[in-house]
Amino acid sequence: MSALDLTIIALYLLFITWRGFQEAQTHNTTDDFFLADHTLSWPLIGLSLYATNISISSIIGLAGSGYKTGISVFNYEWTGSVILVLFAIFIVPYYLRHQLITMPEFLERRYDSRSRTYFSFISIAINVFIDIAGSLYASSLFLKGIFPEIDLYVFIIGMAMVSGLYTVAGGLRAVVITDSIQAILLTFGSIAVAAIVYNEVGSWNEIQQQIAPEFLSLIRPLDDEVIPWPTLLISLPILGFYFACSNQYMVQRVLGAKSIDAGRKGVIFAAALKLPLLFIIVLPATLGRIIYPDLANPNLIFPELMLDFLPAGILGIVLTGFVAALMSSIDSALTAASSIATLDLYKKVRPGSSQKHLIKVGKVFILVAVFAASLWAPFINQFPTLWEYLQAVLSYISPPVVTCFIFGLFWSKATANSSFYSLILGGLMGIFLMINNYFYHFVPPIHYLYSATIIFIFSSAVMIITSIFTKNKVKHSIPGSVWQLSLTGTLSLSKKNPWYRSYQFYGALVCFIIVLIVYLFR
Fold first, then answer.
1. Cβ(147)–Cβ(303) under 8 Å?
2. Which residue spans traverse the membrane (predicted)?
3. Is there a contact between 179 and 329 (Cβ–Cβ < 8 Å)?
4. Disulfide engineering: 336 pairs with which of 90, 249, 295, 413, CB 3.0-4.6 Å?
């Protein structure tokens, strides 16, 4: 790397920290700090969701899996886009009209405090030990490949400090603004690398002669080790629903929308932004097999391409985009974990706390969370691959949560006891399958995506059976399903806006593009 590249990265880090502190004087309430006082427009929401979704761990994971197994890893992205469109149409207005601040809050208002407390602890653990720690680990590997003489912990601690500082200072508004900048930089960098790869490998006919057909197919066989095709129908949508519709890490941006229309359009914008990732990250990494046929570590395919082909200056900008992606995922997880710890746990213990005091507690927890994640990050190296760590752990943990949200949103007869028992028994089923698959084989090991489906079906059975034989003792404070909330105009076009400005049109357009992509790369 040249001095110019290093200067560009250093200036960007200084700018991001300064921008966070610029927002430090504007926080008077928890709504302001955690939800940007409901002032977020749809472009900011969309760009921030996109930047948060495509963290450096996702980039390295997607690219590494693309190089090793082909483009089938993109199935996570297009199924996620479908879930985002459905989220925008049906669930976003429900969340915003009931002025939710956190996702565990929904479980208490729909069920009771037991479900809220359980999910609060689960959410914090996922944010700290998966989202933040995974991003720190991925970035440290990435940067250590560039500066091999520097210890791994130096990168982890350095990036954690920068992200933690501007998140503490600026709250959600600073996070969303910096995420929007980072999304643009990241996209520019990925396009630059992709253009170089396409230029190097030649025409599509030449590509097909050098890459095995299965590496260019999204639909994989029943016995595929990565993503067998049946998992596209249930397993991936389960993970997608958790990530898009119930994870504070993502939903917090939508909760800060200035209007329902802004929230809906922002989510659909994010769904659209995910689709080009096939062409700017996954496919270029797969084609990297032509340039580097014997790469020892698939996770380093993108860094290899960047360092070998990008000129000075451009390399600095692209690396800045990758550093930005790291901080985007960290700051998002920090604000999510902090809001849950403060509003769902601490406020329960100290209900009389002032707004200023709660903001201070939230800032303290941000520092605690980033410290804990920094300690855990190096241990991720003990798992087979980063991508398996990120996806497999969620496959065992998230299905019971998804069950409670889906039934709570769409079935008015779901009871408080059914939610709590689904979380507890579904969680125990997840622990059993995790132990069986990785440690002691009580039954033949089951693919972690199939395991997610089994846990979801089991949790759903507990939910339905328990709901039939129990009744709610406490009346919930929000409607028992989205159907009880007025959805007039949800699918019909508004007379105020022409069709080309409606969220329905753009949602349908995103779905059409998804169908086209899957058909072309089937």
1. no
2. 6-21, 42-64, 76-96, 117-138, 150-169, 181-198, 226-245, 266-292, 312-337, 358-377, 389-411, 420-440, 446-469, 503-521
3. no
4. 249
Q: How far apart are CA 193 and CA 363, in angstroms?
A: 37
Whole-number pLDDT of residue 423: 95
Cβ neighbours for 371, distance < 8 A, ≥ 6 positions apart: 160
Distances from the Cα of 4 to the Cαs of 11, 155, 158, 471, in angstroms? 11, 20, 20, 66
Residue 520: count of CB within 10 angstroms of its CB = 8
Contact 232, 222 (CB under 8 A): no
Rounded distance, CA 476 to CA 122, Å? 22
Q: Answer yes or no: are the C-beta atoms of 405 and 439 closer than 8 Å.
A: no
Element housing 519 (H / E): helix 503-520
Q: Which residues contact 319 (CB under 8 A, 6 or more apart)?
A: 1, 5, 8, 9, 146, 189, 306
- Asked if 103 and 363 touch (Cβ cutoff 8 Å), the reply is no
Q: Where in the chain are the domains?
A: 3-381+497-520
**Model confidence over 422-478: pLDDT tens digits?**
999 999 999 999 999 888 888 898 989 999 999 999 999 999 999 998 876 656 667
Name beta bridge partners: 40. Answer: 257
Q: What's at 148, amino acid-wise? A: P
CATH superfamily of domain region 3-381+497-520: Sodium/glucose cotransporter (1.20.1730.10)
Average pLDDT, the chain: 81
Residue 9, pLDDT above cutoff 80: no
Grouping H, G, I as helix, E, B as strand and the rest as coil, residue 312 is coil
Tokens encoding 150: 């520097």
Q: What does the alpha-carbon distance between residue 411 and residue 155 come to, in Å, rounded to a whole number?
A: 47
Task: Give per-residue pLDDT as tens, 11-39.
Answer: 876 776 666 566 555 555 555 555 555 67
- Say how many CA atoms lie within 13 Å of 122 toward its Cβ: 25
**Structural tokens at position 193:** 């690398």
- DSSP assignment string, 320-379: HHHHHHHHHHHHHHHHHHHHHIIIIIIHHH-TT--HHHHHHHHHHHHHHHHHHHHHHGGG
Tokens of 318: 């692209």
Q: What's phi and psi for 29, nearest 5 deg?
A: -135, 165
DSSP class of residue 257 equals: B
Phi and psi torsions of 137, nearest 5°: -65, -45
pLDDT band at 272 (very low <50, low <70, confident <90, very high): very high
CA gap 449, 343 in Å, rounded: 33
Global pTM reads: 0.84
First to last CA, the chain: 40
pLDDT at 493: 53
